[in-house]
Amino acid sequence: MDFLVTHLIGFGSAFLALTLDPLTYIYLIISIFLGITFGALPGLTATLAVTILTGFFGNKVPLDYSLIALRGAYVGAIYGGSYPAILLNIPGTAASAATAMDGYQLAKAGRGGEALGLTTTASFIGTLIGSAALLVFVWALLLLSQNIASPEKALLALFGILLSGTLMSEDLVIKGWISGLVGLAMAMVGLDPLLSEPRYTFGWSYMLSGFQVVPVLMGAFAVPQIIEGMRHAQIGQLAELRGRIRPSFARVKQYLPTITRSGVIGTGVGALPGVGEDVAGWVSYGVGKSVSPDSHKFGKGSIEGLLSSETANNACIGGALIPLLVLGIPGSPPAAALLGAFKLNNIIPGPTIDPEIILRVVAIMVLASFTMFLIGLFTARVFVKILLLPKVAFLPIVMVLTTIGSFSVGGGINDLYLMLGVGFVAYFMSLQKFPIAPLVIGVILGGLFDETFRRSLLISGGDLSVFISRPVAAILLGLNLALITSQTSLAKHLFRRVKNRV
Amino acid sequence: MHSQSDKAALRARDFWGALILIGVSLFFLWRTLDIPLWGGNRAGVSTAEWYNSAAIVPLGIFSALLILSVILLIVSLRAGGARLAFTSVGLGWDRFEALRFSAIAVILFFYIAGLVPRVDFILSSGRLISCLTVVCYNGVTRRILVAAMSVAVAGVYAMTQNFPQAEWRAHDDDIATLLIWMGLTLWAMRYARGERVLQAMPLVAVLFPVMLVCAMAFGFRQNVPNRGGFVFSQIEYHYYVTLRPLWRP
């Protein structure tokens, strides 16, 4: 009980400090506006929004403001994806793919205003549910942190890379693992953390400090998207936005059970490391369809279908932060970009993170969701106009932002060469369906893995049993091995046999 | 998820991907041998034991990468990837896609490697915005080629005339870039009738880089590329000499 009271007081004071600072609102309003714009323009994504803002705010403003800007953009972009989904039948982000199924039908039927208003409200409530779950998991963090030392950290980093590779792979699972290993390999460049031995520097002094996070983030997430997006595309037929956007209290109350259920599903799916907002939207949509008495209306303009997807994708944001903050494993690609921002500020998310940071993150999430709600309700028609702009008008600007964002972090021109190199490699990898997020996670967690793995062996005098003699380490090693063996054909065959018997 | 033909194309591309990955893994495994593993000697000082060597983790990573690459190759071969590898399906691109990618790659390469270090950032970025917009708007082959060529010419000029860092402050490449940019803009305006994006392009290409660089340099107080550039040096001079004394005498 003391724990609960302490955390509620901690959250309350963090929230109060935020609300009393006028700069908070400037950062929030700008970042949410930018986030919604990125989400609303098909081809620009939430990951891109968070990545670009990481370049600008990562280490140039105090951490609190940086977090406000990044969280605001994340929340805004996931919500913003609903605009083109409802009005153009094109999801602005992958997270809104399920939204388009019913949203566009509603807009065509002249209920676009109602659909946007309810979507905004559901996204707001969904974000709040995710934030509440995040607050609860501070407890888990405190319990876990008692038993974490170098062996556990090394195994946790490896688990994060393997798991994200497994879950984020669209094609073969080994492609996800290869991507993670490429990221780990990139993290090996530079002076090694224990002996300062130069590795793979090829006599170039810039390489001694290793690959910087921001150019890698920009290269991996922004450059492939710019190359892929720079093609001519006709803007679709925009459905007319008719009707009142602000929903009545009675309508919200009517759909509250759907919103609550979808919020819980979205949070749960988001908490699975590596599973993003798009999966949350589809899972919730599927559950909604199977439990709704009006399931036959799904896909034909059902408000329930619309809210199932939209609530879940925003609730997923809070969920995705749980593995990031508690385990150091990002729950989605935008969370991987956020991990980069933490690293820029010398904060390694995971069991040893300062719980106060988590309380501040939750407070920011709550305030960001309120701001998004208000911006969404009162300025929706502005974003509808943005939908009419072609993405080729935006992507060149994004490239300039990416360039100056990478340059200003400190490495100068060399960081730009790195960004471009990583960008081309990531583009070819994405063409071959290698997931890019595990690569970024590998780069970010690689240094930690190298240092803690070798420190564990150093402490034990080279005795490998250090990884099984400690209970938490043994569990983590077991999870790593289970993850690898579960993908072998023998394990798959056994699973199938057991499933058939059951 | 993927249709059968998509999967066949992916397995064919995996064939090439696996071969490249095997080559990369073997190269870096060979490079890892340069790092002392079994307690080597550096300048007469004995280095650490095997378990603390800087080579141990990279060795594991590149070995795992090699194994996974071989598995990927086997998967590809079993699915008939090698058979399709030399066809257009295996190579993955049609002619227009190859042209589009090459043009964007040329533009980005000369922008980052040639223009950004040597040419004023406002000029080089304005130029990039113009070129990318021309390349992608309506996707006409001739426009793509002209835009890519114009960046390549400006980039090659900057790199050949002012290659070493000591010469990056020279302004001849700034002027060359400005002239080529103006030429491209005038050429693009011929096609701009009825195309709103092309009509707005010159304004965006001038205003956006100016606002961005000023915000970064004077707002965030961050370093910006090529501070001694033709345009930015003038802005910076007038900011500190003419404007700033107005509120901070």
Describe this protein's structure.
The complex is a heterodimer of chains A (502) and B (249). By secondary structure, chain A is mainly alpha-helical. In chain A, 71% of the residues lie in helices and 1% in strands. In chain A, a hairpin with a 6-residue loop joins strand 1 (190-191) and strand 2 (198-199). In chain A, helix 2 packs antiparallel against helix 3, helix 2 (22-40) packs across helix 17 and helix 7 packs parallel to helix 15. The longest helix of chain A has 25 residues, at 112-136. Chain A starts with a helix and ends with a helix. The model of chain A has no long low-confidence stretch (mean pLDDT 86). Chain B is an all-alpha fold. Chain B has ten helices and two strands, in the order H-E-E-H-H-H-H-H-H-H-H-H. Chain B has helices spanning 4-32, 56-78, 81-84, 88-91, 95-118, 121-136, 141-161, 172-189, 196-219, 230-247; strands at 41-42, 45-46. Chain B has a two-stranded antiparallel ribbon. In chain B, helix 5 packs antiparallel against helix 6 (121-136) and helix 6 (121-136) packs antiparallel against helix 9 (196-219). The model of chain B has no long low-confidence stretch (mean pLDDT 86). The chains are: A mainly alpha (502), B mainly alpha (249).
What keyword list fits this structure?
heterodimer, A: globular, B: mainly alpha, two-stranded antiparallel sheet, 10 helices, 73% helix
